UniProtKB/TrEMBL annotation:
Domain (DAHP synthetase I/KDSA) ranges: 13-260
PANTHER family xrefs: PHOSPHO-2-DEHYDRO-3-DEOXYHEPTONATE ALDOLASE
Recorded GO MF terms: 3-deoxy-8-phosphooctulonate synthase activity
Listed EC numbers: 2.5.1.55
Reaction(s) catalysed by this chain's protein: D-arabinose 5-phosphate + phosphoenolpyruvate + H2O = 3-deoxy-alpha-D-manno-2-octulosonate-8-phosphate + phosphate
Family matches, as Pfam families: DAHP_synth_1
One annotated GO biological process: lipopolysaccharide biosynthetic process
Protein name: 3-deoxy-8-phosphooctulonate synthase
Species, as recorded: Aureitalea marina
Amino acid sequence: MDLSKIPHLSHTNSNNFFLLAGPCAIEGEEMALRIAEQVLNITDKLSIPFVFKGSFKKANRSRIDSFTGIGDENALEILAKISQKFEVPTVTDIHEVSDAAKAAQYVDVLQIPAFLVRQTDLVVAAANTGKVVNLKKGQFMSPESMQHAVRKVTDSGNEQVMVTDRGTMFGYQDMIVDFRGIPTMKQFAPTVLDVTHSLQQPNQTSGVTGGRPDMIATISRAGIAAGADGIFLETHFDPANAKSDGANMLDIRHLEKLLTDLVAIRQTVNGL
């Protein structure tokens, strides 16, 4: 994958890690613009290539009454507005084959959720749009097995593909990160570490996923030290009242300190 081919992506020559960050879901225009602007200000200061992340809908929910979105077109139009206003690329996840062509009209990167990464028709539909495809490693899959998901994209004639590790199931209600997976998957495609989803505690009896945001700095530092090409994290100015995944999101007040530390670690890794 060639980062420089992603529209509006800045700082591609900084030799830094790249960042996919934003809220879990698009809850409204004001909140999305506010988060995008704050993250952009920080990443510009630190010369970090930044892709704004926001789900236009949430199809994988624990309960039927969980928040799923504000309407597909509304959310996608907000993502397009962020790209135009701030000149940053955007990424959103898709869940059905028909989502691929629809979302591709608005965003630059199509993300395949971890639970769906073995769905060949979905992966191929994303690849056929010509957009960058971000493949989330299934919580149930080995790092080695992700080469086959990558090949589905490249065999469809699209070389713009990356892989994201988001942890592996550990029992019923916890996740672990096996950092051996980063160098393994880097053999197949640029590899991102999804820090916040790796700290989820799913399948809680309440039907609301828990998390360990206190460990975000630990996991992200280890990921950069292990050679991750990029970091994925979800952030919000009010995680406690976020409508999706608030339990494992980073409070945006802590983002600059975290990214400053990660840049320092990356510079050390580059010098080895």
